Structures are given as C-alpha cells and as structure tokens.
C-alpha cells in the first residue's frame, strides 16, 4: 500500500476547498477528499448512483465537517478511482472496506445516500465491528419492493432532462412542482460551487454496471436487518420515485431502535431539499 496522505496543521472547513488525494490498495488507486478536524471516529460518505466526489451537497457535508473528520471517496472504477466497477453491491462494499482500511481506520460512522446506503448495509452485514453509526438516506433494503424498477425510472428521467437541457438530478431527486423545481435548481447550483480540481466524470459503462447491481440488489433475497445493532438514522422524502419511500419505512421497522424522518412534498433528494432541517438532526445523531 502507498499513499500521498499527509498530516496537515491547517484544517479544511469547506468541501469545495478539500484537495483531492489518493491512496493505493490492492492495485486500485482510490480518489478521496477529507475535511474537518482530525482525530476521533471519521464519518465516511458513501455516494449515489453515477456520482463522483463532486456530487456531495456542501450544505450537508460542511456542517458535519465542522464537528467531525469527514472523508468522501470514489469507489473502484468511479470518477478518478481506477479499476472496474463491481457488478454487485456486496463487491462494492468489499472495495469500500479496502479503501477504509488503507487509510488506517478501524472504526467509522457512515453517511450514505441511495446506492451508497445499499453498499453501507452490505458492508455492515459483513464487517459489523467496523461501523459505529449509520445514516441511511434515500435508500432501501435488499429485495425491497419495486427496487428493481430504478433502471426504468432513471432512463426515463435522463431522457426528460435531456429534452429540457436540465441536469437529470433535477428530475430524479426532486418533485416536478414549483417547490421541487426550485429546490432542484438550487441543489445543482450548489454542486457547482467547487470550481477547481473537479473530479473525473463517471463513465457510461460504470453507470450501467452500477444500475445493474442495484437491480440485482432489488431482486435478491431480503437480508437479516435485525443483525444491524448500530444506531441508525433513516431519512427520505415522502415521494421518492427512485427508491420508493415505503422502503425507508421498511428499513425503520426492521432495524431495531432506528430513527426515521420523512420530509413532506419531496422526493429522493429530500435531505437536500430540507438540508436546513436535516443537518441539525444528523449532526446531533452523529455527535451523541
């Protein structure tokens, strides 16, 4: 293993200023960014379908990094990370563990969104001792109802976005009413706040492989979520078209002691639309 990670006296407090670094493990170069005060248990962010390092909302990540050491990364084959995207969620979880261990972490909190939440569930099932707390947003369990329809919804919304020359996330993550359209535009604008050292775009082959992995996850046998004993915060909008909101309720029922928040008049990106309300909850949950 080699790494260009080095100690710094100055603390990066804004995600848009966090330098992109790399660590090499098992022949794969993983790209990552870190910010916030070093020390303690880090919060590792697991990103969504077809997303790279540039897809994290600074209004979510910056307030958490004000209190905690935050790490975001590109998993194998995504963005600036080398290698091929695995064909299953479980293999993605194995790669995430390889990355986490390469940075020398033996215990982490996970903040996960969408596909990232599926990877987080697979990871904690296999490596329960690695994870202290879980934040699962816009996601669902293996074998979840209608999870395998995400591909159809995704391709349809990409088409709609192309016709209107919009970012697909405006359709995929937000309701197409006045409130949702405004929230979607604001979210996309926030993602553009970082102007330097942008990540490598996600390749079409990587996107398609991830999408097939989600379909497999949706069609697989349900996992034993009662085995998740970590404190878990679950959040979503009430009208998630990608990963049906009812699956957040399913996670809540099956993960003992979990907390659930569902935001009204919002979709897959409910936590981004309601970031002002959600962030204090997440900071409090992670800080307990």
TrEMBL record:
One annotated GO molecular function is: hydrolase activity
Gene3D superfamilies (UniProt xref) = alpha/beta hydrolase (3.40.50.1820)
What is the name attached to this protein's record?
Alpha/beta hydrolase
Q: Which organism is it from?
A: Kribbella lupini
The protein's matches in InterPro entries, at most eight in alphabetical order, are given as: AB_hydrolase, AB_hydrolase_1, AB_hydrolase_fold
Does the keyword Hydrolase belong to this entry?
yes
Q: Which Pfam families match?
A: Abhydrolase_1
Q: Which UniProt keywords apply?
A: Hydrolase
The source's superkingdom equals Bacteria
Domain annotation AB hydrolase-1: ranges: 43-272
Per its UniProt record, what PANTHER family does this chain match? Answer: AB HYDROLASE-1 DOMAIN-CONTAINING PROTEIN (PTHR43433:SF5), HYDROLASE, ALPHA/BETA FOLD FAMILY PROTEIN (PTHR43433)
